[in-house]
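pinned: reference chain
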Amino acid sequence: MKWLNQIIKYRLWLGLAFLALAVFTNIQAGFWPAFVLYLVGTILIVGHFLFGPLRLIQAHMEDGDLEGAQKVVNGIMFPGLLIKPMRSVYYTLKGNLAMVDQKFDEAEKHMKKGLSLGGGALTKQAEGPNRFQLGMLAMQKGDYKEGESLIRQALRAGLPDNENNAAAYLQLCSIMMRKRQFRTAKEYFKKAKGYKPTTPQIVEQIKQIEKSIHRMPG
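pinned: its structure tokens
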């Protein structure tokens, strides 16, 4: 629906144009002929600030156009005006983009802010991946206890695909191996393989763990 994306992209300017036309019509013909123009202009402007360009950001992310997504995110001047679910997704996306740029502290700050807002179906969809990434960040800092807790929360909230689920269970497997809870580690490894991931990095990780896990007791 490219036409809808175009409306969202230029929604503010369209709204201002409708209001300008409404004022002109009001002067020339009176209020009631201009009423519909006032209404449409107001709806467009209010929608711009309350709902933001979320659809545009998601389209860029799905196409792998991270530069385009970053440009749209940076164009949101007043995120505090976004309704709560949209604000939550906004901070989650900012966190994801910061992760890509390896700005881990910034990513953690934004993702925690997104989680703290909560609420709505949109944020429920983002909760699992958000908690998983926070868990990975915690593990990078050496906080395995926090990392394990967040990854378990991510699995309970739901992850979007086989690749993410396999990666989550592999991380839990690694944690259990560090804790020498080998039986549990094997169970998580089996679950990870059961998702049949195809991402080369995850496949290679499975191969590396498989070399040693069968020799473990339990």
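why pinned: The mean pLDDT is 89. Residues 161-218 form one domain.
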